[in-house]
Structure to design on (149 residues):
């Protein structure tokens, strides 16, 4: 993921695919491949790797959250919502899941449910330590708060 952090996506994919070849049952490698593909807007590939990660480790909530984002990008809103709901059943205290779910709901025109998810996200976010508040999340919070009024 060092290459991913440096935005060298081709190198990141190559290294992660090699790692997956060497050990095909490492769920974290499949998850990281999903992240790289999602970031490069290769949504079908992201779907494949997030699904693989879920099959290998079904109790990791972030896999379901990112699968939900991917499914929404692929135009399957209903399945996207199901993935987010599964993520929340696994980890109801993660404000990132609520925030991303709120964004998906908002982008699909469901304003009231989006507000509810955003409020839950805010409640959890306010309880976080300063070190746990990711800068990217701060930007997304501000944008959604502005749009929701």
């Amino acid at each position: 993921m060092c290459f991913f952090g440096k935005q060298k996506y081709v190198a990141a994919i190559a290294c992660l695919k090699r790692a997956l070849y060497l050990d095909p049952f490492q769920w974290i490698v499949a998850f990281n491949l999903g992240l790289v593909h999602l970031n490069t807007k290769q949504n079908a590939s992201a779907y494949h790797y997030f699904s693989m990660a879920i099959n290998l480790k079904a109790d990791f909530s972030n896999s379901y959250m990112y699968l939900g984002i991917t499914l929404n990008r692929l135009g399957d809103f209903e399945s996207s919502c199901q993935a987010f709901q599964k993520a929340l059943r696994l980890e109801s205290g993660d404000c990132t899941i609520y925030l991303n779910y709120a964004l998906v709901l908002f982008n699909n025109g469901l304003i009231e449910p989006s507000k509810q998810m955003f409020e839950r996200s805010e409640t959890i976010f306010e309880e976080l330590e300063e070190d746990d508040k990711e800068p990217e999340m701060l930007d997304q919070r501000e944008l959604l708060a502005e749009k929701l009024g």
In short: The domain at 1-83 is CATH 1.25.40.10 (Serine Threonine Protein Phosphatase 5, Tetratricopeptide repeat). The mean pLDDT is 91. Residues 79 and 141 are 24 Å apart (CA to CA).
